[in-house]
From TrEMBL:
Gene3D superfamilies: Rhodanese-like domain
Pfam families attached to this UniProt entry: Rhodanese (PF00581)
Source organism superkingdom: Bacteria
Domain Rhodanese residue range list: 17-137, 168-281
SMART domains documented for this protein: RHOD
Matching InterPro entries: Rhodanese-like_dom, Rhodanese-like_dom_sf, TST/MPST-like
PANTHER family found in the cross-reference section: SULFURTRANSFERASE (PTHR11364:SF27), THIOSULFATE SULFERTANSFERASE (PTHR11364)
Species for this entry: Longilinea arvoryzae
The protein's name: Rhodanese-related sulfurtransferase
Length: 284
């Protein structure tokens, strides 16, 4: 069976010894960038490979970029090659933040590069721990290197140049995954300018989750997004956040809801505000 959105802890536990499954630990903390790697060294799901958001899932920041630019294609291809995946490999990514940091970046990148057998562990590492499932503290044996030649599909994303021409289009809706107070510009503890891209709607990624950090049901998510978006076609949705990572959470939630086709603006707010000529809004 192919899993392309989320996978349960029970299902993953049943496949820990399956050579056609690959588990990626992508735990990360924006305030403490080395935290995820340190936690991985302490313990992780058996067989999991660690992927660091800054090193493996993004490229270096430039004067014009956001805080987590997409990895350069050749670097990403090299990273995935070292994971040893084939078209038949089921990849499962997990983190400790309901999928937001940074399992959804793994999910989105692999899909955008043509590997559709990728899912996020529903409930993530905290749920795995709460169920007293197995852990290991040693590094897993290296997987065989299998060349990965996937190419970034332009249907999955928009550039800042694209967005300048799209954000005022009445048929297009931007969805901002940041917390409401950041969206409204009431506080901004991370980026130097507060507010949001004009016309954007606010859907904090936390609204996609149940109290136990599992995703809401497809029916509930479909109802939620229906109220938010009205008759906007899913293909005309553009997701963003602060740096293009948690935005993927809303795209994953849309997929779970059966609303496929939304795009990511990877540069997100931190790239948009690099140019003072680009307009911003505050308030709801």
């Amino acid at each position: 069976m192919k899993y392309a959105t989320i996978v349960s802890t029970e299902t993953l536990a049943d496949h820990l010894q399956d050579p056609d499954w690959c588990v990626i630990d992508s735990r990360f903390d924006l305030a403490h960038p080395g935290w995820g790697g340190a936690e991985y060294q302490k313990a992780h799901i058996p067989g999991a490979i660690f992927a660091d958001l800054d090193r493996d899932l993004a490229s270096p920041i430039t004067p014009a970029s956001g805080r987590h630019p997409l990895p350069l294609p050749d670097r990403w291809q090299s990273t995935v090659s070292q994971w040893g995946i084939t078209p038949a490999t089921q990849v499962v990514a997990y983190d400790s933040a309901g999928g937001s940091l940074a399992a959804v970046r793994v999910w989105w990148l692999l899909r955008a590069y043509g590997h559709s057998r990728v899912a996020v562990l529903d409930g993530g590492y905290p749920k795995w721990l709460s169920e007293h499932r197995p852990l290991e503290t040693v590094l897993p044996p290296a997987r065989p290197i299998i060349p990965f030649s996937g190419q970034l599909n332009p249907r999955f994303w928009v550039s800042v140049e694209d967005l300048i021409h799209l954000y005022r289009d009445s048929k297009v809706r931007l969805i901002d995954a940041r917390a409401g107070e950041r969206f409204r510009g009431e506080i901004e503890a991370i980026d130097p300018v507060a507010g949001h891209i004009p016309g954007a709607l606010n859907r904090p990624y936390t609204q996609n989750l149940n109290p136990d950090q599992t995703f809401k049901s497809p029916a509930q998510l479909r109802e939620d997004f229906g109220k938010l978006l009205g008759d906007i076609r899913p293909q005309n949705i553009i997701a963003y956040c602060g740096s293009g990572v948690t935005a993927g959470h809303n795209l994953l939630a849309l997929e779970i809801a059966g609303l496929s086709g939304g795009k990511l603006y990877p540069g997100s707010w931190s790239e948009w505000i690099r140019d003072p000529e680009r307009p911003i809004e505050t308030g709801a």
